[in-house]
Specification:
Elements lengths: L1 E5 L6 H10 L3 E5 L10 H6 L7 E4 L2 E4 L1 H11 L13 H25 L13 H11 L13 H16 L7 H11 L2 H11 L1
Helix pairs in contact: 1-3, 1-6, 1-8, 3-4, 3-6, 4-5, 4-6, 6-7
The structure holds glutathione.
The site of glutathione has 11 residues, from loops.
Length: 198
């Protein structure tokens, strides 16, 4: 059974939501980041970055929320969380899965810290454009790939929920609110929220 290392009110919500979407059994291991549990030698073996989330699957361990999305979606193809190899939707699936940590995450940190960056030097360009691109992609919906829900929605949806709704790190837009509402209406999201609330 997979083991998910997580902590409430952190980015590990995405992995919690993801595991709930699979419907597969998994064990939750609480790593209380507010008590420093992520820096113990035992945990650093699992994630040398000393952050949550992380996942153990037998002998395999990995961290990084988006990588966990990709791994779990492939391990449980029956959960239909990723377009299969050869499906043209897979291109956009991978694009948005990588867009979450590569562009949304640094953009929200940049907005919060107000650090000026040269948009040519910064891999994510400029924060405003990141959110404009996401806004345009979410106009139609219901999901980031259109009609198909996928693990990319877990990565993008939990990133937006974290940045826009929970921690107000990035300005909201009507498309973001509608999208977060749709994500939050999913039974798996609600189960994850209940678990996180204790
Ligand atoms: N790049 C990581 C970021 C994970 C992350 O920032 N986790 C935070 C909680 S939101 C953490 O564990 N912080 C504890 C610490 O840095 O000591 C991912 O996407 O999974």
């Amino acid at each position: 059974m997979m083991k998910l290392y997580w902590s409430p009110r952190t980015r590990s919500f995405s992995s919690l939501w993801l595991m709930e979407e699979t419907g597969e059994p998994y064990e939750r291991v609480l790593i209380d980041v507010f008590k420093g549990a992520q820096k113990t030698p035992e945990y650093l073996v699992i994630n040398p970055m000393g952050k949550v989330p992380a996942l153990r699957d037998g002998e395999a361990t990995l961290a990084e929320a988006a990588a966990i999305c990709a791994y779990v979606a492939e391990r449980y193809p029956q959960s239909r969380l990723a377009p299969p190899l050869g499906d043209p939707l897979r291109a956009k699936y991978l694009y948005w899965l990588f867009f979450a940590p590569s562009c949304v995450e640094p953009a929200m940190v940049q907005l919060t810290t107000k650090i000026e960056m040269n948009p040519v030097a910064a891999g994510w360009g400029d924060a405003q454009r990141v959110f404009d691109v996401l806004d345009a992609a979410l106009q139609k919906g219901p999901w980031i790939l259109g009609e198909t829900f996928s693990a990319a929605d877990v990565a993008i949806g939990s990133g937006l929920n974290f940045a826009v709704r929970l921690f107000k790190m990035a300005p909201s837009r009507p498309s973001f609110e509608r999208y977060i509402d749709r994500c939050a209406a999913r039974p798996a999201f609600q189960r994850a929220s209940a678990i996180a609330a204790g």
